[in-house]
Amino acid sequence: MRETSGRLLRLLALLQLPREWSGTELASRLGVTTRTVRRDVDRLRELGYPVRAAMGPIGGYRLGAGAELPPLLLDDDEAVAVTLSLRTSGSEAAQRALSKLSRVLPSRLRHRVAALEASTLALPVRGSSVDPAVLTAVSAAIRDASTVRFDYVDHFGGSSRRSVEPHRLVSWGRRWYVVGWDVSREDWRTFRADRLSLRTPNGPRFTHRPPPDGDLMAYLTRTMGREMWPLRCSLRVFAPASELEGRVEGEVTPIDSATCRLELASDSWDVVAFVAGMLDVAFEVETPPELAERLRVLSARYAAAT
After folding, report:
1. DSSP 3-state assignment of 111?
2. Phi and psi dihedrals of 224, rounded to 5?
């Protein structure tokens, strides 16, 4: 009986994936016959799980949506993964969910989770966590193609009111970002979700635009690293762009065959000075003057040390 119950749980986990499974595929995954698969599918239906079966050469089984779907079941690995994710999240909502989940974990899983917790270290999360209600409201606006209006606080503490056509929610590290078309600035922008305060009601409906750069992942790879940091600078580097590409986390733009522009972002001008020095090429500061002043201070300090 225990073997059957375990097999039903594995079958249910497979059916929850967003695809259709042939009886032969399920039998191979579970190590049983197709007849046993059909019998197990009937058992799941008796328990209230709406398993749909499509006939024909490309048909198969999948779990349908149903208003009376029984409580979600997790196998051992899934339960441990969910528990650890909640434990490291740090948000109040995650801790409430973890408390509920911990009360129903079997003893064997509590031991596994406790062992992992004892042997790992979770660094504290810097900054504010995002309100789940914000993520829910923005995701609904993306689905409904509805403009969102919000007050936004930037890296430097300045505030502004924005009207944005939201395109995607992005999880980057431990933060959430909203990528969208800024209506007043007529350009794509990325906003930290924990720094915006939604205003109601939403703005007008819109038609979704093609993703920026034609490829959202490429756009995020190019821009997100800079969006995360409050300090930005531009350096004129006296070396070909090809000599810098792949050596530094910054945006390199050729000026001519022997010169390029390097744009960096950081939370410290000292870090920028270190990175620029490690390149071992001549450069000059284009912007901002604060970086130039910091380099003068460091230059005097290093000269005194020699």
Report:
1. helix
2. -65, -35
Rg, Å, the chain Cα set: 27
Distance between CA atoms of 186 and 252, rounded to whole angstroms?
25
Before 288, cis peptide (omega within 30)?
yes
Amino acid identity for residue 271 in this structure: V
pTM over 0.90: no
Write the pLDDT tens digit of every residue in 231-242: 889 999 999 998
Residue type, 277: G
Question: How far is the CA of 189 from the CAs of 27, 96, 195, 262, in angstroms?
Answer: 48, 33, 14, 21
What element of type H or E holds 237? strand 231-237
CB 111 within 8 A of CB 145: no
Tokens of 245: 């590409």
Which one, of 2, 28, 6, 1, lies nearest residue 76 by Cα?
Answer: 6
C-alpha dist (Å) from residue 262 to 137, 186, 246: 38, 25, 12
pLDDT digits (tens, 9 = 90+) for 25-62: 888 888 899 899 889 888 888 877 888 887 655 558 88
Token pair recorded at residue 139: 């995701």
